[in-house]
Description:
Blueprint: E1 5-6, E2 17-19, H1 23-28, E3 34-36, E4 57-60, H2 65-76, E5 81-84, H3 87-93
Parallel strand pairs: 1-5, 2-3, 2-4, 4-5
Amino acid sequence: MSIPQVPVSDVHDHAVLLDVREQDEWDAGHAPGAVHIPLGELPSRLDELPDTDAGTLAVVCRGGGRSSRAVAWLSQQGFDVANLDGGMKAWQGAGKQLVADSGSATVK
């Protein structure tokens, strides 16, 4: 099965993303429009997924491995999703905004 990919350049700065990283990674820095559901909790929290009527939901982790697994599984469940190519490292590298509760955001 081919995993749908979306390049960072095709994702609006304030797009709604699904971030499947762990809590400490999320706390260190995340996209401003992201929804946080760690990969291990995804099957039990499907009702919290953002509405994708507007199009494909980009799924992100640090580098793309966990989000690829999430996209494969979510696609099998009928969701319109794509892996954010390069993950949060690519997001940060493209100069996109990061936010964190601590004020100083970085990709962990």
